[in-house]
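Progress against Task 2.4 (sequence-to-structure conversion) is shown through the following example record, which the project officer requested during the mid-term review.
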Amino acid sequence: MRTKINFLFFLLLSVCMYAQDKTITGTVTSSDDGLPLPGVNVVVPNTNNGTSTDFDGNYSITVNQGDVLEFSYLGFKTQQITISNQTTVNVDLEINASDLEEVVIIGYGSQKKSDLTGAITTVKSEEIEKTPNSNVMQSLQGKVAGLQITSNGSPGDSPNVRVRGVNSIFAGGNPLYVVDGVWYDNIDFLDNSQIESVSVLKDMSSTAIFGQRGSNGVIIIETKGGKQNRKPVITYNGYTGIQHAQNVVKMANAEQFVTMAYESGSEADIQYVLNAMQRYGRSRVNPNIPDVNTDWYKEVLRDAPISSHSIGVSGGGEHTNYGLNTSYFSQEGILDMKNEYERFNIQGNIDVEVSDRFKIGVNSAFSNATKYNPENGAWFQAYFAVPILPKFDYQNEEASPIPFSDATQLGYRGSQNPFPVMTFNNNQLKIRKLLTSIYGEYYIIPDKLSFKTTYYNDYSTILERNVRLPYFISENSQRETSSIRRANLTTSNQMWDNLLTYSDTFNKHSLKVIAGTSYRDEQYNSFAATGNDIQAVSLESSWYLNFADPTTFSNQVSEIGDRFYSMSYLGRIEYSFDDKYLFNATLRHEGDGRFPKKIWETTPQFGLGWVISNEQFLENNSIIDFLKVRGTWGQLANGALGGSSGERTINQIVTAIGDVATNGIVSTSTFNDLQREIIEETNFGISARLFNNSLSIEADYYIRDTKNLVVSREVPITGNTILDNAGEMRNKGFEFAANWNHTINDNWNFSIGGNIATLHNEVTSVDTERGYIDTGSAEFRQRVMVGEPVNAFFGLEVAGVYQNETEVANDPIAVDNNLEPGDFKYVDQNNDGIIDDNDRTVIGSYLPTFNYGANLKVSYKNFDLSVDVQGQSGNQILNRKRGEVIFTNDTNIDADFAINRWHGEGTTNSYPSSAGRRKGWNQRMSTFFVEDGGYFRIQNIQLAYNIPSGTFGKNMPETRVYFTADRPFTFFNYNGFSPEVSNGVDRQTYPIPAVYSIGVNVKI
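Structure tokens generated for the chain above:
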């Protein structure tokens, strides 16, 4: 018995020894600078087994397989790693400093987040890299209060970006982009994997230092680079995925279309249906319709791949830091033609401390992209193409080289088939950009006074090759002669900045003063030529001008160019007392020769802040960790205006006066002698951190006025129009953002956040003869008028639909206009018994009054799941596709109309009848064509698994594997592909696809 007990004891002891004989060694370093961390606690949670790192960051510990090692160190985030087969576990701990101590990149410098008085929001790289796209701005959608981003589904196209609404009628609205100090109008060359952070500067106080170029907001982008005394780190980021069209518009099918044709009473349309049955046969299911039922959107759409790969290395020595990144991005379009975007980037930077006082650095990037533009008219044609027409018509034996169908062969006025233009057009752009900056910084007084000089150059070329190949489908659909257009657009933007910076801290005072100059030289040149009749056109090697007929170049060659200089003097003061009372002021004096009335413009700004939480009466409270109130005021000139231009002319004329021919002169002027628009803004804000920094809150209220607003004014007698500073406009709104971070236990933690923004846009003055300005087109009118949003939709208000003959007979308006049941009733706004232009009113605005976004992230051990949502409301969209029945009525219509049309008393009070759809009365600009543009979208879902280094062997690098569904679900009522329409007018908008991808990040 004793022998058995001894044997069992020995067996158990052996098992325990076997289970606890794994020795783990490794080194713990700081992820910020790569330096070893001494004194890091290394323990197995809930046991007495533990150790700490030595002076060089090394440790050794014996554990069981399957144990969890926890690494903790003051000021750093705790990290846990599950032990499997590895024997070496090296760990990089991330700094866990409060985000209030973060340094935020601002104009010409940086500032601690706790010292900011302006409205600035920063988004980090991990949020940006979640979204698979070609432009970093699409990754910010729904993440920043007050930032409206309207996406574009076409490969390589940039989204439309607005910061706090629109400031001008004629001068655009995109913000200024500043990448590592260099100014750009477009950042389509940047790869998401290159980005370290994006800061959105929203108020005039924050953007004032940039002068007139910053009037529409500023997006500051900091790219990744190395750090001193850090060992080389190699990273790989890559994903591949598929794009799928979402919310495809349902069009009337063959049965619905034929039913509406018969209901319309149009003998011509009925005959076209009979022609289709004769040509293509009758349907076996319903012999009263043709044996064709084409879904044209299904035909022109496809699933398309998207992928990205990037490799980077960064590090630094005692006096240097460096970074090098190369990336490849590829995206095909969901329009089934030669429609794609491909980009290769290489970017590098190096900073060198030449001495204790002198530092130099170079940052350079090269981007080489090829883009094939889509034929956007295909979306328009697919909407109107009748479903009783097939894609191919093999009876059309004369067609060459492909027997596409043609609706004119059935009697229709247009060919309708979108495939000829999609197939026989090839529009290639080769886009190359070279971006370089070099600086030198010398400390005149160490750590106090420095001088920095920086030179930037942004050089780009766009080579266009647009080839139109010959084809023949029918007499009404053909291209007899091929053509080629070659164009070259070259731009070169140079800047030279010189700055003196003085900073000092004494007693309770902190002071920083910046003064300097900024010189800008922008030039561009565009050359284009078009030739016809290309020899050997079937060979791409012949797609050059020398293969075209030289006699066809006449009047098809053009060249334009321009050069613009600007000089600015700038200064800024940042002051704080006792970390409680904050003050800053900015002044920029800027010269611009485009405005001869006033070449030089001075724009001031100031901001105040009070850190209430640092007051004695809030010490030792258990709720408020940080509380700051802030207010700013600032002015900026709008730099997007083209300046003064035009001409004054005198013409001799002969006119009859008293039946006598009389010579005379008429003086006309189209000269726009403009001043700058001045944008003035007041901003009040609150920043708070509560409950041990778990809850962060940012809130802002702003009022922004555009003075000297440029409007269009009619010139008496001549009928000409000129631009003049004769209006004012106001934007005001409230922005709120909150985030909560919480750690439940060692395995679980989560964060949740959200933001909302309101926008009220109103034209406050229009000093013209009529008191308003008409924009848009005559058929689809928009208007600028006092008390309403800019470019508001302007038309008739639909009150309902006449249901029966009695209702028609009892309404004088209906009788006077020969209306019938199924026709619209319009609101007689002035009660004069007549429906005319005087009854038009504002029927909507394209500007959303409410934007919102939210995010949730949950982590369990090495897994994490994140979900982002966003949306907007309060805006309308003009469904111009549906409205263009005014130009032709023998086309298809969407299924929504076909299902909901009036086809008898009581069937609807919102839609006209099939016959009514063809009447000019029902085709007038009205609320029927202006639809709700609000939507809610699940923006991004990502599930990831993080594999710590050494998990599956000592050579296993730190790895993250993830699956992403980007924009998988969008919910809206608008009858279109997407409610994202930047100007609110939907005629041929490229759909925005959902993207499903799988990716991996590796760090060595």
